[in-house]
Structures are given as C-alpha cells and as structure tokens.
Amino acid sequence: MRDVFPWRAPAHAELAKRIPLPGEARMKAVGLTRYLPIDDPESLVDFEADKPAAEGRDLLVEVRAIAVNPVDTKVRAPNDSNRDVVEKDPRILGWDAAGVVVAVGPDVTLFKPGDEVFYAGDITRPGGNAEFQRIDERIVGRKPSSLGFAEAAALPLTTITAYEALFERLGLSADRQNSSESLLVVGGAGGVGSIAIQLAKLAGLRVIATASRPESADWVRELGADDVINHREPLRPQVEALGLKWLDHIALFNDTDGHWDAAADLIRPQGRIVAIVENSGPLAQGVMKSKSATLVWEFMFTRSMHETPDMIEQHRLLCRVAVWIDGGKIRSTVGEVLSPISAENLRAAHRKLESGRAIGKLVLEGWRS
Q1: What is the fold of 13-155+309-365?
Q2: Rounded Cα–Cα distance for residues 71 and 4 (Å)
Q3: DSSP of 65-106, one letter per residue?
Q4: What is the DSSP letter of 347?
Q5: Where are any strands of DSSP class E within 157-205?
Q6: Which strand (E) or helix (H) includes residue 302?
Q7: Highest CATH level, class, for 159-297
Q8: What mean pLDDT is reported for the chain?
Q9: How does pLDDT run across 33-54, given as a tens digit for each residue?
Q10: Is 335 helix (H, G, I), strand (E, B) or coil?
Q11: Positive or negative torsion for Cα 327, 333, 338, 344
Q12: What contacts 56, CB < 8 A, 6 or more positions away?
C-alpha cells in the first residue's frame, strides 16, 4: 500500500497543539499518524495545520463538503506494510470535495477566485479532509449549479472512475452508438456503480446491475437499471433467465477475485471486462484467451499520479458531466449527509463504509466553528 499511495502530509503533529504566531494562517483538518482499526479513536483525529498557498497551476479551495470512498478506508486501515508506521506529519486523507476557489497560482488559466468547484484530487498530495486544499486545476471541474456542495461532493471520484471505465477503458460511446449492447455492472449500488448505471443508460445500453438486498435493488432500479440480479448467487442462470447467453461488456466494481470466473464465462467473444478493485490472487486467463477477450484496469488517480500529458481530460469530463447534471440527465448519488466535518463523523462514515451496507455516497458538510 505504501508503494501505491506514496504521500506524506505537510503538517507536523505537534502543530495541532501549539499557539499560532500573530498573522499566521491556520486551518482545521482531520488526519492520522498511525494506521489503526476504525474503532480506535486515534484512527482519525482532529488537528490544526498551516493554511497552504496556491502556486503554479494550483487552486486554493475552501472545502465546504467532502465524501468518503473505499480508497479512504483502504489507505487508513492497518496492513502488513504500515502496521508499525508512525507518521511524523499527520496524513490528511479525502478524495472527494466541493468548495470555493479562494486563490489561484500564477499559471492558472481555467478558474478564478469565487468559482465553485468539485474534484477528486491526487493520491500523492494532501487530501480534502481540511478547511483548505491546494489542487491542480487540470483535475478540477466546475460544480453543477443545480447542486449544493454536499450533493456535488458525492460525485467526483466515482464519476471520474465510472466515466473513464465506460468511455475510455471499455471504449463505449456517449452518443448511443452502443445502444444495442448489454453491460453488466457488478456492485451496482456502490458509489461507482450508481454513476455507471446512469452514464450507461445515457449512452443507451441495456444495463444489468447486481444487488443483494431489497433496498439496494430498489436503488439501482431508481437509477435506471433495466434488470437486477443477485451477485451472491450464480450469475449465469440469472443472465440466461434474461434471455442472454453472453454479455457485451462487464464492469467489475467490487471483489474482482470473487467474480472473475463468472465474468470470464459470461463475456462475449472479443468483449471487454473493466475492473477497479485490485486482485489478490491469480486471475485465470484460459477462457479469456479462447474468446480473444480483454481485461482492462481503471484507476482514476493514474493521470494525476503520473502527470500524464492528457491530465486535463479529468477537468473536461467533470465539466461535461456537470452539464448533464444541470440538464437533469444524471442525479447525485448522495446517500447520507453528516455534519460537521470532524474526526468523529469521519470515523462513523468509515465504519459504515467498511460494513459493506452503505448505499450511495456518504458525505460530510460544514466545519465546526
């Protein structure tokens, strides 16, 4: 995990206790110094840090709302590589935020102070669980004007992931060129699945979503899924009951290992499977080879982590989706809002996400005065 998410926060733990110098800008933040189970009160703690300044192509954003994603819990949770690590500087997590630009670096061309924005951020830099965040303008979008900050904060990471998974990794077309084709979304009620269903329906596909509980099945139907099947039961009989032998496209949005054999069996010859959750064991490729089928990975931090030449595409896609949202074509997937933004409420959100029973996105809004 340390190699995948190579980041150190800039605020020393002792700064939480010291008295700021006259005129020194400070901010509230939530972070960690040790990697602990979520029931440990020290797993996420409130502290204060120096307020950052905008440089280069960075925006300085006053964060109004944040959302929690599985990546937050994975980075925070103890594992063999971080169990004994004690961070010298508190690490600020959080890769979903909405807020207002308060300052811009000298090289910024896309935004100005006062602009309302939403973004997922960069895994290699401090996250959004702070009153102010410095963020590269190329991965920031203009907040949908029809949404409040909480509703907007629920969207960026999952929207980027779902958009890139469908339209870049699977090669689908947003202008309905694939309208006669089928897409299976495994994990339809999760954050990414909830957006992917809507994007796929916008593109005209027949969407089969998986859900294992009545409330999650109702959720994916509300989002537009044409058919719902249970991922805790064998998939092929359920797919065949829908009159299908093969599926044109499959999106694995949870438990890649657990669903791999069924996905390889169900994908049509020369079809594509996209996965977003890393596998822990070998994925058998024999059936895939015989079908000339493709497995492609989606990781929404790739562009920012490697500063790829097309990094600005995330700005463009967020702005494009904002237009769709304001036009009523896509809705926010916020499931629950907690207030204020604090270590206590973030621990509660992590705990619920780790339980596997969250529907839609968990959002926190507003800072305690």
Answers
A1: Quinone Oxidoreductase; Chain A, domain 1 (3.90.180)
A2: 11
A3: EEEE-HHHHHHHS--TTTTT-EEEEEEP----EEEEEEEE-T
A4: H
A5: 182-186
A6: helix 302-306
A7: alpha beta
A8: 92
A9: 999 999 999 999 999 999 999 9
A10: strand
A11: negative
A12: 105, 106, 107
